[in-house]
Amino acid sequence: MVRPVESRVDSVMRTIHERLAARSLVPGERLPSIRQLAEQLHLSKTTVVEAYDRLTADGVIEARRGSGFYVCGHPPPLSLSDVGPALDRSIDPLWISRQSLEAAEDTLKPGCGWLPQSWLPDTEIRRALRQIAREPHSSLLEYGRPYGHPALREQLARRLAEHGVAVGAQQIVLTDSGTQAIDLICRFLLEPGDKVLVDDPGYFNFQALLRAHRVQVLGVPYTPSGPDIEALAGILEQQRPRLYITNSAFHNPTGAVLSPLVAHRLLKLAEAHDLLIVEDDIFADFERENAPRLSAFDGLERVIQVGSFSKTLSASVRCGYIAARPDWCEQLVDLKLATSFGNSPFSAELLHELLRKGSYRRHVEGMRGRLADAMGETLVQLRRLGIQPWLEPRGGIFVWATLPDGLDAAEVSRAALAEGVVLAPGNVFSLSQSCGGFLRFNVAQCPPRVFEVLERAMARTLL
Amino acid sequence: MVRPVESRVDSVMRTIHERLAARSLVPGERLPSIRQLAEQLHLSKTTVVEAYDRLTADGVIEARRGSGFYVCGHPPPLSLSDVGPALDRSIDPLWISRQSLEAAEDTLKPGCGWLPQSWLPDTEIRRALRQIAREPHSSLLEYGRPYGHPALREQLARRLAEHGVAVGAQQIVLTDSGTQAIDLICRFLLEPGDKVLVDDPGYFNFQALLRAHRVQVLGVPYTPSGPDIEALAGILEQQRPRLYITNSAFHNPTGAVLSPLVAHRLLKLAEAHDLLIVEDDIFADFERENAPRLSAFDGLERVIQVGSFSKTLSASVRCGYIAARPDWCEQLVDLKLATSFGNSPFSAELLHELLRKGSYRRHVEGMRGRLADAMGETLVQLRRLGIQPWLEPRGGIFVWATLPDGLDAAEVSRAALAEGVVLAPGNVFSLSQSCGGFLRFNVAQCPPRVFEVLERAMARTLL
Hints:
Structural class of chain A: alpha/beta
Shape of chain A: globular
Oligomer: homodimer
Number of strands of chain A: 14
Number of helices of chain A: 17
């Protein structure tokens, strides 16, 4: 087709319109300077000036004093899936969360991160509700105190002391969840563009959360005794991350436990490089014996501990906590009020009622025994299918294991999903996408049918 | 004192150290370029290069390839009080919130934004708790669905329809509070540095919340029928804000109601300037007759409605909602999961149980009658003291009024606080700090002693 004669000015305008159509230029973005574009297109600056003037008159672009020309309109809103690299949906962390949360009643969820309803203390919770309904002074109506329920904070301080973290109630801030606790800390400590370190593999929601803070996420390889200290030293030297987010006792997804040696070296490196650490202690009550805690070693100088009872009591009653330096607590409370006007006093009251009773301790002990049995059974079943555990966890709810024959976990997961079983493929947990042969199993969500479906899914994937 | 002989290089180094000590240069900040500093200090570039090299060797500053020299170390963490202009604590919004939340039992709080416990349906809440404790299918244990409790969302959709907002349950996302709802929307729509418009005067927590998003907050004067449309047009033209956050029915703090004319003009301007709007409808149930809703006029195209039941049912049971375009809801749910892993299913269940009963409607009707009486009494008492209401509100809980004799509301508030009465001085609500003679009164929190203390506080301030 012969193009009709086009003036040079028209051709510049067309170029800009084409870039807009292809979204290589987006609303709010700065255009090339007049000189740059003139050089690029081998045209005179006058031609470009004329084209920009006409595009401005058309309302396509706008001049901003002293700063050049910009595409009119606002940039598109933040989408978590846009911020990071595009992922196959079957290994998109948010998608896995939503699959597990939206799953139909009869779906099996060995890939999810929580216990089945039948393992949780339904009777005790109902009893506590009736107790609160009777108790004339319970907090059913008013906003809570800025730091949260005072008696619950005292209780949490005593619990932390049992784990070797010496802390007063004035260093504990209640939140609506462990996730909200980490979110507040990120708001407090991070600037957009900062670098933040997570474990690879590590809990996938940390990645989703950090994307919402527009920070750069770096991964440190995780070993059976904690983060790889050599690799960590190199990253701290070269990349200078601001914050490291990890879990200590029963690391998610590997089930590993931090060794005292690694804990000590990690804290020395953190001090040398001014690295702050968030230790997510959400699996604490699954431990039979206390593993080292970064917060205990460090005395909450540069470590902040967060936790909640979503795993051991109820995920429906939302209540988490932050244990941190007192001056940071003050600022975190201001941020909490500004962004949520405080956590639920009612949930705190219910949690306080449940923890107050000896029944919580008995419930947790029973749960540990039951988990140990389920762990043993799951390991047997996995080995029968040729699926190799990365380590034999000392407790907790997760087994991290490799598929045989180089099978791809995402493919196996897709095949299992077709039969109503939600698996957790390894790359969901891996920033470097280097865990394609792994799956994470929740031993409390592994009835026999899981392994039947898994066996068929593996066979189908091999074909 | 005679200064010892100092080399030119030393003097440059001393200059940098002095700026660091005075915090006119802070960790993470870029230093002046070598050429700039040489010109500024009338020294050769070689001298500055030498000084920068020695400061680099000392670990005080660092070179970043292609981008100049930066002060070593991390910037200090975000403090809400640092981000905005420094305010007298007595007119610092966060301080007022914390005063009200931390107040002792016998403190009177005419300055707070909620109803006294005795006005809230304690008996009904206790009954609903017992009902939930009995009901075998209630959500006491598991995480909720991503959007939140389906039956409650259906209920909310029907309520919105009664207010003229035609919306399906798939356009409703549950949150843990109205504040969290606005926070998620800000995360979704705003970039740091964006401009956001609020009412002046307006609800103070919007300012605190927006500071946490590092955006530039602009104010539009509020009139008895809504925002000043002339002023708004000018601001949209010149400043191009991205978002406007307001309440429609019973504006906080003025008690004003949006007129249909202003609502229509506002929406036309919003369309012309691509302005998005958050309408916080938290006072909806205090209305006797429905005032215009931006979300009803606009059909949720560019308006997002948020609300909660903290004011009419309980502030202890945290549950709010967002009503928005379906594509935005999807993204907001992803953000909610990433940053809080979902709202409390238990609170949603309790709210659902309370709203299901005819008793909620009766409770709210009774409350409106009681508020009308309290409003009448408060207006009489204020006029007796020469305090002039800005308008006579048609309902709601607030009276916005000017002190006589040019009295300063912050001073009067300080004097009243000494007698255990927390007032809300006007400048807490004013971005331009132009409401120094105003106080906001919560008519439900105004027993006779409030006016006795107020009278003495005014007399003392006059002296």
